[in-house]
């Protein structure tokens, strides 16, 4: 019997975590790992203890900001990084698996946290109708390998 690779396991976990999201518009999951060990997990949604968008605004989701993005939620990458930092984890040299490529603000946070590699399933630019993935471009420009994930056999 062939065992799944750790990369497949981590990306599958990110996809499962996305199902926990209360966002009406998009469900995104993220897993932070180092040396094949999970450091932290996250999914997109409002800060813990505030509200759940699908319960408060089930038809429309939460209010939008000037760019048409959610005005209240944290992205999956932000939640994973914040939880890790809150618990004293060292993120230097870690790898992030996420179901949607990082937006530019998340890319800056990923870079600043010392994460060295990012695997993503879907393109944020395609999802938002943008010409390119600014976050992926930023990460690759500054030495963080950010690539679209391909399931390993």
From TrEMBL:
Keywords: Hydrolase, Metal-binding, Zinc. PROSITE patterns: CYT_DCMP_DEAMINASES_1, CYT_DCMP_DEAMINASES_2. The active site is at 77 (proton donor). Its cofactor is Zn(2+). Residues 5-132 form the CMP/dCMP-type deaminase domain. One of its GO terms (biological process) is pyrimidine nucleotide metabolic process. Zn(2+) binds at residues 75, 103, 106. This is Cytidine deaminase. It comes from Mucilaginibacter hurinus. Belongs to the cytidine and deoxycytidylate deaminase family. One of its GO terms (cellular component) is cytoplasm. GO terms for molecular function: dCMP deaminase activity; zinc ion binding.
């Amino acid at each position: 019997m062939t065992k799944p690779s750790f990369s497949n396991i981590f990306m599958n976990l990110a996809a499962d975590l996305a199902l926990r999201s209360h966002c009406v518009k998009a469900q995104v999951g993220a897993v932070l790992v180092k040396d094949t060990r999970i450091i932290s997990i996250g999914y997109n949604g409002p800060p813990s203890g505030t509200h759940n968008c699908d319960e408060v605004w089930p038809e429309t989701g939460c209010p939008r900001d000037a760019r048409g993005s959610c005005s209240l939620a944290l992205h999956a990458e932000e939640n994973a990084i914040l939880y890790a930092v809150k618990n004293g984890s060292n993120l230097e040299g870690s790898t992030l698996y996420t179901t949607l490529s990082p937006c530019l603000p998340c890319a800056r946070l990923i870079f600043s946290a010392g994460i060295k590699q990012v695997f993503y399933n879907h393109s944020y630019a395609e999802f938002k109708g943008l010409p390119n993935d600014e976050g992926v471009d930023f990460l690759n420009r500054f030495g963080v390998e950010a690539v679209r994930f391909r399931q390993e056999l």
